[in-house]
Write a structure and sequence with these properties.
The chain has 177 residues and is an alpha+beta fold. 22% of the residues lie in helices and 28% in strands. A hairpin with a 3-residue loop joins strand 5 and strand 6. The N terminus is likely disordered.
């Protein structure tokens, strides 16, 4: 084979060839954004947090008789604590209750809490864990508490939560990344 027999694989020629290849001939790459996280599917912790921050930034008001859209605008969830958690997890609409959220979860120890886990008090209230506070024994949570406080991002003492009967849970469909 002589030098004239070898194809000219210059960068310009390769780019020109790539530009005319039909898009259908290229393999599809699916990358789910938070707005496109699969409804009722697995969800990564960063997406759960982004969904929580969306409602927080929009200052969704507590109203168990009303619904608000999620980050992508495709689903509506109850504007209460368990509706908020359901929205964060992109689980069933209009949202689960504090009684049914544990059915979707595995119980964990307090020290195992990670972003997107919950602390739940059966038949009372639930909160989305955000992160551990710098102070020992405190955590940052997001919740939709009641009409007097609406959406919150607050620091709370784990001892107080334990005394009130809260239990930490991990959503079965949550993934680290």
């Amino acid at each position: 084979m002589t030098a004239h027999d070898t194809p000219n694989l210059s960068r310009r020629r390769l780019l020109r060839a790539a530009a005319i290849v039909p898009a259908a001939a290229l393999p599809a790459v699916a990358v789910a954004s938070p707005a496109q996280a699969a409804y009722l599917g697995n969800i990564v912790r960063a997406d759960v947090l982004e969904r929580a921050q969306n409602w927080y930034n929009r200052n969704i008001q507590y109203n168990g008789g009303s619904r608000a859209t999620d980050i992508d605008g495709s689903h509506t969830y109850r504007q209460d604590c368990s509706g908020f958690v359901s929205m964060c997890w992109h689980s069933a609409t209009p949202g689960h209750s504090t009684r049914t959220l544990p059915d979707l979860c595995t119980r964990i120890n307090w020290g195992q809490l990670k972003v997107g886990d919950i602390v739940n008090s059966y038949d009372n209230h639930c909160m989305l864990f955000h992160k551990w506070a710098a102070e020992s024994g405190h955590i940052w949570i997001y919740d939709l508490a009641d009409t007097s406080s609406d959406m919150r991002h607050v620091k709370v003492a784990t001892a107080s939560l334990r005394n009130q009967g809260y239990i930490p849970w991990r959503y079965d469909r949550i993934r680290d990344n």
